[in-house]
């Protein structure tokens, strides 16, 4: 993979009233200069997910890398650029086997042991969190705080993505602790274009 951009916008379908609002948010983010987007839909309706994912791909073309949350099969079917798996999803090597060597593989970690293990996989990046408290995830792991981002930085040379409660107000502190990139749901969902422009300005 190339270097990660500073901002990784996650489009969580639960933040939008309908598909139209989701697509509009995606287009606004891309127009603001966001180049890495994840499609996150935890409803479990695979047919619906594939339809929305294909529409996102169609609307964004190649202006942004598109990452599918959880599902390697839908990543391939929607012609996405990669898949992101958590500790309860396909294993990193299982996901890698499904998507092949070229597409991006991201993994979620929540403590130093998981970071260490993730470092030994073929993952292209390691996400660590929740750094701050978050309302966007059901049953989140315990908040780890900035110091654990610093610690994770010492445990891997892979690109490090910080996630969980990251806002325009605290994103600089997370990058200063060693993250290469911040992944954001709620603070890019309300006013996507304005928020993304501000993030990109702040993160320079
Ligand atoms: N994984 C750890 S925290 C989180 C996920 C998917 C949610 C992040 O959302 P927000 O709104 O940016 O806190
Ligand atoms: Mg998952």
Any descriptors?
alpha/beta; 8-stranded parallel beta barrel; binds 4-methyl-5-hydroxyethylthiazole phosphate; binds magnesium ion
Bound molecules: 4-methyl-5-hydroxyethylthiazole phosphate, magnesium ion
Task: Name the helix and strand elements from N-terminus to C-terminus, one letter apiece.
Answer: EHEHEHEHEHEHEHEHH
Largest sheet data? 8 strands, parallel, barrel
Distance between the termini: 21 Å
What global shape is seen? globular
What do we call the CATH topology?
A: TIM Barrel
CATH arch. level architecture: Alpha-Beta Barrel
Helical proportion, percent range:
40-55%
Rg on CA atoms, Å: 15 Å
- Low-confidence segments, ≥5 residues, pLDDT <50? none
CATH superfamily, by name, is: Aldolase class I
Spatial strand arrangement across the major sheet: 1-2-3-4-5-6-7-8
Number of helices: 9
How many runs of DSSP E, i.e. beta strands? Answer: 8
Mean of the pLDDT scores?
97
Summarize the structure.
With 204 residues, the protein is α/β, with parallel strands linked by helices.
Q: How is this structure best described in words?
A:
The protein has an eight-stranded parallel beta barrel, surrounded by six helices. The protein has a single domain (7-203), classed as Aldolase class I (TIM Barrel). The mean pLDDT is 97. It is 41% helix and 19% strand. By secondary structure, it is of the alpha/beta class. The chain contains nine helices and eight strands. Helix 4 links the parallel strand 4 (82-85) and strand 5. Bound molecules: 4-methyl-5-hydroxyethylthiazole phosphate and magnesium ion.
């Amino acid at each position: 993979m190339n270097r990660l951009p500073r901002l990784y916008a996650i489009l969580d379908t639960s933040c939008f009233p309908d598909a139209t609002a989701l697509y509009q948010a995606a287009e606004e983010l891309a127009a603001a200069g966001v180049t890495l987007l994840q499609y996150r839909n935890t409803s479990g309706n695979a047919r619906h997910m594939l339809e929305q994912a294909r529409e996102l791909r169609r609307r964004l073309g190649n202006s942004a890398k598109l990452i599918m949350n959880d599902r390697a099969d839908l990543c391939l079917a929607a012609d996405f650029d990669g898949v992101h798996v958590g500790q309860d999803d396909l294993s990193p090597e299982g996901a890698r086997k499904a998507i092949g060597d070229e597409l991006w593989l991201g993994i979620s970690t929540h403590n130093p042991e998981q970071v260490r293990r993730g470092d030994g996989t073929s993952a292209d990046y390691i996400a660590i969190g929740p750094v701050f408290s978050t309302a966007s995830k059901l049953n989140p792991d315990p908040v780890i705080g900035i110091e654990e981002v610093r610690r994770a930085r010492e445990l891997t040379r892979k690109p490090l993505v910080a996630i969980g409660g990251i806002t325009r107000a605290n994103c600089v502190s997370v990058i200063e602790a060693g993250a290469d990139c911040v992944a954001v749901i709620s603070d890019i969902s309300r006013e996507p274009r304005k928020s993304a422009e501000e993030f990109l300005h702040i993160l320079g």
